[in-house]
Amino acid sequence: MLIVGHMRHLRPALGLALVGALSLTACQPAVEGSPQQVAETLAVALETGEFDGVPMVDGIPADAEAQRTEAYERLGEVPVDVEVLSVESPDDKTATAKLELTFDLPGEGDDLVRQVPLRMQVTEGEWVAAWEHALLGVPAGQVLAVNETSAARGEIVDRDGEPIATHRPVWHIGIDKTLVEPEQAESAARALAEAAGLDPEAYAASVAAAGPEAFVRLITYRQTDGDGHLLVEQVAGIEGAVAIDATQVLGPTRTFAQPLLGTVGEVTAEMVEQDPDRYAPGDVAGLSGLQAAFDEQLQGIAGLKVTALDPDTGREELLLERGAQQPQPLQTTLDLDLQQFAEEVLADVEPASALVAIQPSTGDVLAMANGPGSGGVDTALAAQYPPGSTFKLASSLVLLRDGMTPESKVTCEETLVVDGYEFKNVTGYPESALGEVPLSTAIAHSCNTALIAERDRIPMDQLAKAARDLGMGAVWEMPVTAFSGAVADEAGSETEHAASLLGQGRVLASPTAMAAVAAAIAEGHPVVPRVIADQDAPEPQSDLTEEEAAQLRTLMRAVVTEGGASMLKDNPGEPVLAKSGTAEFGSEDPPLTHVWMIAIQGDLAVAVFVEVGEFGSTTAGPIVDAFLTRAAGD
Description:
By secondary structure, the chain is an alpha+beta fold. 32% of the residues lie in helices and 25% in strands. It contains 19 helices and 26 strands.
């Protein structure tokens, strides 16, 4: 009974305890979310600008989005990365978090980092964020602004440090559509284009397609250009036409060392697409030549500063600054005077043409000019043409290696038939140099049949080896497109073999390649041309000996003293050595001819090429003569 009674006494107490526990649970319903979730959700919203999924107290997502847009508008395309560093909750109703905002600024260097506090609380059974403008990393009433301070583009200089490509004054001439009524813009464009001698309809269409506040450039003139002054005077009489005073990176003249130096201008859409981390629309960069190859060096590193700006007062607080790093100039091997001489002697040559001058002792390219007929194509460095009789020096080298000397006799006939094809000597070949003549005489007058008659002693593989020993086909490691020459090890026929001995058939070279051949003969070993002063040139393998080079120099001197380069006999300075050449091409009768001449004078090796000419002696020879005369100071 006691036990039973005792048990009855305990049951009401146990029931009260259970009721109490249930009542307590009912007073504390589950809270939706957590401080960590809210902080992470807000961090994502700060990155993306989309706040719809962020629970807020006394805040509307649209307001937060608007504040973010305004605060970051002057940052441009700068992305922001937000990280939750810590979350603390002192009780079950409130919490705080620390967020770190990292603004990924363009270029290299420190990024802008801002740490901001986030307050959170439980409202209506849910953890929510307390929105504040300061969460954007800047107080209310201020915006973040980034401004780049560009580095002046580096100069390209000559071997003595004299500026070649540098900032020069220009006029950008075009139509400013804000200065003309919309219905008058196209007629103004036509008038301006006609005054400049350009296509009026094409320019009018460009102006029509541009935005209502656009400046549409028609042409850029150097301020030293007389034609530019005339057009600038006419601009004042055309409504909407303007001439903007500016600077642009240019060489000394329009043609100077182009396209080697290259151009600078606004980046293309393809450049932006291929390297979006480096380029953005509107950026200025090297587009071709050395300007493109060394763009990173010549660009320098732009500086920037980030400020907290009050748009109303203009007052700003500096938050971060990177100083601009000025670029180092790019030093070339070009000689300013020699390059100018080369440009001048080619100025009146109508077909594509080139002149290349190399210093044999160093491989430095002192001049690399393309004539106006090249139309911007790099004939000097990258063209591929048969070198004609200038290549007979390689054929002669094979004969020298087979035991011949410059005095050895060869037979020069008027014609020679190989596999049904008749080879002839050049028109006007002297009768006195026919028959049994020394090799030096055959080379001096460029006898075709004498070398072809010796073709069994000059197999293609040995010819290709001799060409390589003179530097053709070598690896140059040029920073721009270049062609060092090519000679096949085999011929497809006896006729092709014979033609190859004359620098046609399966032989190709650029003017720079043939200048390098002349330099190799001058030095007694292959010379790798270089256009950058500190470039380490590779050393090609070669079996060329000084004795062989001396014999080749003897043959070249005979071309001057008794052959087709007699115009160089009395040039001032050291004795000139030379070899002329022609190479037939096309289907005309008689065929057209490429013309060549290579020459050596002291520590200078020169090659001249004209795409269509008469003879090497009559077309290229006078150009070599004029250049060497100017180079000697006369």
